[in-house]
Automatic annotation (TrEMBL):
PANTHER family reported in the protein's UniProt record: ANTERIOR GRADIENT PROTEIN 3, ANTERIOR GRADIENT PROTEIN-RELATED
Name of the coding gene: Agr3
UniProt keyword terms in alphabetical order: Signal
Descriptive protein name: AGR3 protein
One cellular component (GO) term of this entry: endoplasmic reticulum
Database matches in InterPro entries: AGR/TXD (IPR051099), Thioredoxin-like_sf (IPR036249)
Organism: Urocolius indicus (Red-faced mousebird)
Similarity comment: Belongs to the AGR family.
Length: 166
C-alpha cells in the first residue's frame, strides 16, 4: 500500500509540475509578429483598413508608422520608440497602432512624399491629421531618435484634438 501511494503521489507531482511548466511557457508570450520590434506589449492591427475600423469603433486615434527593415533611420527610431515607456504605454492604451513596411493606396498618408520613417495620425472621424508634424520642414512626418519627446507631445496632441473636436 505504501508503494502505491508513493507512486500515486509522484505521478501527481509529475502531472502538476508539467502543467506548471506549460503555464509558465504560456506566460512568456511569443514576440508578436505584427510589432516588428516597435513594442511587443502593444496590440497592433494588421492593415490600414482594420486600423481605420478600430479607430472609429474605439474612438481612439490611429497611429501609422511607415518603415522599412533595411533603413538605418527606421531601425534607430524603432529602438528609441520601443525603449520609451511613455510611448509604449500611450500606444498600448490610447491608440490604435499600425506599422507598415509598404505604402497604402491612401494618398492622404503621404501628403509630402513616400519616405521612411514616417508617422501619421488619423483621428476617429477618419481624418488624416496633416497638422500633426515633426520638426523637419522637408519631411514633415519623420522623426529621429532624439525627437522622441517631440513625438510624445504629438501623441498627446492627437489625443487632445479628439477631446476638443467631438
Amino acid at each position: 500500500i505504501m508503494l502505491n501511494s508513493a507512486l500515486a503521489l509522484s505521478l501527481l507531482l509529475i502531472a502538476v509540475s508539467s502543467n506548471l511548466a506549460m503555464a509558465i511557457k504560456k506566460e512568456k508570450r511569443a514576440p508578436q509578429t505584427l510589432s516588428r520590434g516597435w513594442g511587443d506589449e502593444i496590440t497592433w492591427v494588421q492593415t490600414y483598413e482594420e486600423g481605420l475600423y478600430q479607430a472609429k469603433k474605439s474612438n481612439k486615434p490611429l497611429m501609422v508608422i511607415h518603415h522599412l527593415e533595411d533603413c538605418q533611420y527606421c531601425q534607430a527610431l524603432k529602438n528609441a520608440f520601443a525603449e520609451n515607456e511613455d510611448i509604449q504605454e500611450m500606444a498600448q492604451n490610447n491608440f490604435v497602432m499600425l506599422n507598415l513596411m509598404h505604402e497604402t493606396t491612401d494618398k492622404n498618408l503621404s501628403p509630402d512624399g513616400q519616405y521612411v520613417p514616417r508617422i501619421m495620425f488619423i483621428d476617429p472621424s477618419l481624418t488624416v491629421r496633416t497638422d500633426i508634424t515633426g520638426r523637419y520642414s522637408n519631411r514633415l512626418y519623420t522623426y529621429e531618435p532624439q525627437d522622441i519627446p517631440f513625438l510624445i507631445e504629438n501623441m498627446k496632441k492627437a489625443l487632445r484634438l479628439i477631446q476638443t473636436e467631438l
